[in-house]
Amino acid sequence: QVQLQESGPGLVKPSETLSLTCTVSGGSISSIYWSWIRQPPGKGLEWIGYIYYSGSTNYNPSLKSRVTISVDTSKNQFSLKLSSVTAADTAVYYCARIAYYGSETYWYFDLWGRGTLVTVSS
Amino acid sequence: DIVMTQSPDSLAVSLGERATINCKSSQSVLYTSNNKNYLTWYQQKPGQPPKLLIYWASTRESGVPDRFSGSGSGTDFTLTISSLQAEDVAVYYCQQYYSTPFLFGQGTKLEIK
Questions:
Q1: A44: number of Cβ within 10 Å
Q2: How many whole angstroms separate alpha carbon B36 and alpha carbon B73?
Q3: Residue A94 β-bridge partners
Q4: What is the pLDDT of residues A48-88, one digit of tens each?
Q5: Strands, DSSP E only, in A8-115?
Q6: A chain contacts of residue B38, beta-carbon cutoff 8 Å
Q7: d(CA B10, CA A62)
Q8: Phi/psi class of residue B57: alpha, beta or left (left: φ > 0; alpha: ψ in -120 to 50)?
Q9: Does B40 touch chain A (CB under 8 A)?
Q10: Mean pLDDT in chain B?
């Protein structure tokens, strides 16, 4: 049973960089696309970006200038960095798996982590 | 960008009655080469991550009760719960995966009347 677990600081100061890691357990990170999605308190879902195990990425243009997603296959982890954060970046951050069947990617999110709340405040 | 708009924003339905949530995309999410609509529905209960209910607009995810069904094509889609149960109280989101950025609808909050 594959599981995803987000980890990282729950409090980040304005103008600093938010850093989170998603650990994939019960399965390999290889040959699959992985994504970050966030949800401000009481609001809807926003896709941040995705990464392939090889390292290729695709980011939401609304965040592209501040986002870096990376992967560490040796640790079965992928990570999110969001720079120059403000209060508007306060949200629950989810990592998710992009669905696949065999060698074909289906692009919807079929498995989610439980999420981690990151608050931006001084 | 393909913008997703759901209606209504909130809905109250009696137990055992039908609930219908609509989702409209700003352009078609039907990929004509494979005749598939790149549209999913998620259910999110308080304090939980979203759960995949429906993909390809009408295919139920394994384990999802058959009272949940999805329909529609092109730009107009519907999620129907045929007989509302207490455990279906949640916020429901549609999402297009036809092109990036992957965008979600604003959500529909479903409550018991």
A1: 16
A2: 9
A3: A37
A4: 999 999 999 999 999 999 999 999 999 999 999 999 999 99
A5: 11-12, 18-25, 33-39, 46-52, 57-59, 67-72, 77-82, 91-101, 104-112
A6: 107-108
A7: 27
A8: left
A9: yes
A10: 98
Instruction: Give contacts of B102 with chain A, Cβ < 8 Å.
Output: 47, 107
**Cβ–Cβ gap A109/B52 under 8 Å:** yes
- The one-character DSSP state at B2 is -
- Find the closest chain B residue to A98 by CA distance: B97
pLDDT band at residue A4 under the 50/70/90 scheme:
very high
Write the CB contacts of B93 (distance below 8 Å, at least 6 apart in sequence).
A44, A45, B6, B41, B42, B44, B50, B104, B105, B107, B108
Mutate to test the interface with B, among A109, A111, A117 (most CBs of B within 10 A): A109
Give the number of beta-carbon pairs within 8 Å between A and B.
52
Task: Please tell me the distance from the alpha carbon of residue B95 to that of residue B103, in angstroms, as a whole number.
Answer: 6
From B61's Cα to the closest Cα of chain A, the distance in A is 9
